[in-house]
């Protein structure tokens, strides 16, 4: 697959979509730069060169940075100024972040460089793209960004590699000397000129890249949550009637709720388990964790939709400071502030925490003989001798508890920096990092529910699940055995999670998903 950086405005202002970002970050799609982009960069660069040769101080071109912006930099020191900026700002600490995050970060920065609003020379953009196409990944550390003035430290670690310095891994993930990696791929280190160092580091690309990947993951996990909820409804001999369409969109027109209800109603269609107790069942209503599943998962869907609107707008942005306007004017601005992205990252973390919470409550009901409708305690083969799925719920509860802590917003905090010049920051990078953890935890939580609901459905034999939930159960059984004596449970939980992460479960659900 090839992704093209162009000035085509038919899809986005600068021709890049969320799918493009995912393709580059996760699937190593190659990137091409259209000739018109390179021509535009040459034209815009002429404005920067003219300002660099004038006596008028311009931020980022002939002055220092941040609180040091009052210092005028002599022409002979300006190349050193750019190098010093990158070296000093590459100040991250902690574990390296994931390869896909770095690739998304770099591609999004390349997208902005291609916009013609940053004033860089074509060689800077071309070198960034060449690194991505060669599979060279700068080592970006976990801590360093405050989410204002852009993701400065993460982007600086990337820019350092463009200069032939810093740390990087090859396409196979091996840490190797940067000069060796560049030479092997025929890439010459960039000698940065005026404005270019700042243009490489002043964007919200890190937090935006992580938001786009979280949205892609959550689209899939929302469907998975509908499926595991349907499996739990069947396993607990619940009713499908509360998911009828006339109870949702006409009465409470939240689109996410209607879609989740349609999914669950479809998943339970044709279920012999559900049909077995439609008559003679004395229960009037199922518990909230069963009956209200579409309301909760649907609210998550609507939160995703809001976050996607913000992400789409940010994706169409060209963020730099100072920025080059179409007139050629170079002017300061505050567009690097990450508040819009930080808010929705935190909003999603809240939704993710609650979705995991209701899934855990459904799971717990299946293990309690007082509430599970005649299932053995903890779904054990010989309760007392065997513990069954008891501790799987402990693991799930621990993940839910962690996600509740991760739901505490980062964006309400701010720590001033740069001698009070940068006196309010978004902490959007921190919001993005905790959301990534929360999404991974949610996947594990739903894997536990799928595993336990699957065992409960097996214990309902000879009654069978419906076609959709049965397809999920059949897939699960290709990796995890059915009920029996206690055995090594961690490996089975990991296998169930891998089925979700690989996309295999979502694939078997495709024929049964609502397209509303």
From TrEMBL:
Residues recorded as bearing 2,3-didehydroalanine (Ser) in the entry: 149
Keyword set includes Zinc-finger: no
Coiled coil: none
Keyword terms, alphabetized: Cytoplasm, Histidine metabolism, Lyase
GO MF, one example: histidine ammonia-lyase activity
EC number: 4.3.1.3
Pfam families tied to this protein: Lyase_aromatic
HAMAP family named in the record: His_ammonia_lyase
Family designation: Belongs to the PAL/histidase family.
The name this protein goes by in its record: Histidine ammonia-lyase
Organism: Glutamicibacter protophormiae
């Amino acid at each position: 697959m090839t992704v093209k950086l162009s000035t085509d405005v038919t899809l986005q202002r600068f021709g890049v979509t969320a799918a493009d970002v995912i393709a580059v970050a996760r699937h190593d799609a190659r990137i091409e730069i259209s000739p018109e982009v390179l021509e535009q960069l040459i034209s815009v660069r002429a404005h920067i060169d003219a300002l660099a040769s004038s006596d008028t101080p311009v931020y980022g071109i002939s002055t220092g940075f941040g609180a040091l912006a009052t210092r005028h930099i002599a022409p002979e020191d300006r190349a050193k100024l750019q190098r010093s900026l990158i070296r000093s700002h590459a100040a991250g600490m902690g574990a390296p972040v994931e390869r896909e995050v770095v690739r998304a970060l770099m591609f999004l920065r390349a997208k902005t460089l291609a916009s013609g609003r940053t004033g860089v020379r074509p060689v800077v953009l071309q070198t960034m793209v060449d690194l991505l196409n060669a599979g060279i990944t700068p080592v970006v550390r976990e801590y360093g960004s405050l989410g204002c003035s852009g993701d400065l430290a993460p982007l600086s670690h990337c820019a350092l590699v463009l200069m032939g310095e810093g740390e990087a891994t090859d396409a196979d993930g091996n840490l190797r000397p940067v000069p060796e990696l560049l030479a092997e791929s025929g890439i010459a280190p960039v000698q940065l000129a005026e404005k270019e160092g700042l243009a490489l580091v002043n964007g919200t690309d890190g937090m935006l890249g992580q938001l786009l990947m979280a949205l892609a993951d959550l689209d899939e996990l929302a469907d998975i949550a509908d499926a595991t909820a349907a499996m739990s409804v069947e396993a607990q001999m619940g009713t499908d009637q509360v998911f009828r369409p006339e109870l949702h969109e006409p009465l409470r027109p939240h689109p996410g709720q209607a879609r989740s209800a349609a999914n669950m109603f479809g998943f339970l269609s044709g279920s012999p388990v559900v049909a077995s107790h439609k008559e003679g069942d004395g229960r009037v209503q199922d518990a909230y964790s069963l009956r209200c599943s579409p309301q909760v998962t649907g609210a998550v869907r609507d939160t995703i939709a809001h976050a996607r609107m913000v992400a789409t707008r940010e994706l169409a942005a060209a963020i730099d400071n100072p920025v080059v306007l179409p007139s050629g004017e170079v002017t300061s601005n505050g567009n690097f502030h990450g508040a819009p992205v930080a808010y929705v990252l935190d909003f999603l973390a809240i939704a993710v925490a609650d979705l995991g919470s209701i899934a855990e409550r459904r799971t717990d009901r299946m293990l309690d003989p007082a509430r599970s409708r005649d299932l053995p305690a903890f779904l054990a083969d010989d309760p007392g001798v065997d513990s069954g799925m008891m501790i799987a719920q402990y693991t799930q509860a621990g993940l839910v508890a962690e996600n509740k802590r991760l739901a505490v917003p980062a964006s309400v905090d701010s720590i001033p920096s740069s001698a009070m010049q940068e006196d309010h920051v978004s902490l959007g990078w921190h919001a993005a990092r905790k959301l990534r953890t929360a999404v991974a935890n949610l996947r594990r939580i739903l894997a536990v529910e799928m595993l336990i609901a699957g065992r409960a459905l097996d214990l309902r034999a000879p009654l069978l699940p419906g076609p959709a939930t049965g397809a999920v159960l059949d897939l699960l059984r290709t990796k995890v055995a059915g009920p029996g004596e206690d055995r090594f449970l961690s490996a089975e939980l990991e296998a169930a999670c891998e089925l979700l992460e690989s996309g295999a479960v979502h694939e078997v659900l495709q024929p049964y998903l609502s397209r509303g």
